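In practice, a research group might receive sequence data for several interacting partners and want a quick structural hypothesis before committing to experiments. The following worked case mirrors that situation: the sequences arrive first, and a predicted assembly follows.
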Amino acid sequence: MAEGNKLRLGVNIDHVATIRNARGGGLPDPVRAAELAARAGADGITAHLREDRRHIGDDDIARLAGGIGLPLNLEMATTEEMLQIALRHKPNACCIVPEKRQEVTTEGGLDVVAYDNKLPSIIDPLKKAGIRVSLFIDADAAQIRASSKLGADIVELHTGTYCHAHHDGDSVAFDAELEKLATGAALADELGLEVHAGHGLCFETVKPIAAIPQVTELNIGHFLIGEAIFVGLDTAIAKMSRLMDEARGGADL
Ligand code: PXP
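A structural hypothesis for the assembly, expressed as tokens:
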């Protein structure tokens, strides 16, 4: 269960690297964004080292793991290469995500039920190395139970479909997705899993998710980096944190 009422904000800085890589060279530097996020009140930094290195690169992970003063959550696919990188840099947590080469972003959660033969060879060495293991899944009871059975510490519930329903103005789908996320969070918590959520969240969609009491961390990237163009990253993070606090009742934080 969540400690007190505190909800942490993990800031995903992948898309600072997307802009850098559009031109090559070193600017803008995602590590500078991570340092700024720390000063603006972020509770953690998330970065996804993709197999094709389309945004974050190996050197970024080395620098982020080397000391930004915040826990690093490394998102990674279930490959031996990623496992070795994680074991080398020892982030605070690894969030295992499905990865397809052609996708624009992570579409849907990891199918833990289908993968459960392969996952122990990734989860067990990470846990042995003292790295917390998170599985990025849809809020589906079978996926949550399978995650618990495999010994994951955390499940991160995929909020992408919920966010799409909001942007499509489909209130029936929105309510159904929110209900699914709330029910999933309660089940995961009951099974002793820490509950995180993320994908596609913005100022308009964050509050109902932040109000789910079992959720202890939100990981938000694309919207915050986009908003930073207009208001600055520190202002965008401060506003997101304020909305999260308001959703939790704003008290004892
Ligand atoms: N959580 C996970 C597991 C993700 O893969 C992503 C996207 O990299 C996010 C959170 C953040 O999503 P967004 O960039 O849409 O806020």
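Before designing any experiment, note the following. The chain has a mean pLDDT of 94. The chain is about 45% helix and 15% strand.
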